[in-house]
Amino acid sequence: QVQLQESGPGLVKPSETLSLTCTVSGGSISSYYWSWIRQPPGKGLEWIGYIYYSGSTNYNPSLKSRVTISVDTSKNQFSLELSSVTAADTAVYYCARVEIKFGGVPGGRAVWFDPWGQGTLVTVSS
Amino acid sequence: SYELTQPPSVSVSPGQTASFTCSGDKLGDKYTSWYQQKPGQSPVLVIYQDSERPSGIPERFSGSNSGNTATLTISGTQATDEADYYCQAWDRTTSVVFGGGTKLAVL
Predict the structure, then answer these.
(1) Candidates A6, A37, A50, A112, partner chain B, best to mutate (most B CBs within 10 A)
(2) pLDDT tens per residue across span A16-42
(3) Other C-beta atoms within 10 Å of A77: how many?
(4) Distance CA A68, CA A91 (A)
(5) Is the distance from CB of A111 to CB of A99 less than 8 angstroms?
(6) pLDDT tier at A103 (50, 70, 90 boundaries)?
(7) Does B54 touch chain A (CB under 8 A)?
(8) From residue A80, how far is each of A2, A7, B93 by CA, in Å?
(9) Is the separation of the CB atoms in A97 and A1 below 8 Å?
(10) Residues 6+ apart with CB under 8 A from A74
(11) Half-sphere exposure in the Cβ direction for B19 (13 Å, CA)
């Protein structure tokens, strides 16, 4: 079955850019959406954004000005960049596959995340 | 922006039924998913599209959604069900939104 693995630096300095990569194994990255989600220590889940394998993106409005998600289909990977980080960006960062089904009220859709990677803790500190 | 509200905690005795609520404006017009997260682990999808169970999720997990409230129900709760449970929906203004999570204690 599909498995996801996050990788990247565990420590980032304030004002710098956080960069993470998610490697997809056991299946192709094509024909799916892929997402980043984070969880500050002891707190709840926060959606960051998702990308279609073709490159189209959708970001959390609260993070949109600082986030870039990209995809490399040749490597079966997608990546996250979060700029100008502060201590508030310290969190476990998860990657996940996204399922989207259109329906319900006009313009509505069902969105769910499955499976998830194991997560990687990124600490923002000097 | 759209918000989902969950109670911080729920407690239940082993073998009893645990219910988790998730509230949001006209949530019944949207589709809700639910995730289980055990300490130190990644979240696991337990319900999608309000009431569908992924393969491998026990039948004692069920979901419903109507009005302003979605509900996750665990029948015959087991000690291994102790975890945090998060609801999640999609809204045209906020895109993806998660509830704050509910901690289940099996006492």
Answers:
(1) A112
(2) 999 999 999 999 999 899 999 999 999
(3) 18
(4) 17
(5) yes
(6) confident
(7) yes
(8) 20, 10, 22
(9) no
(10) none
(11) 6
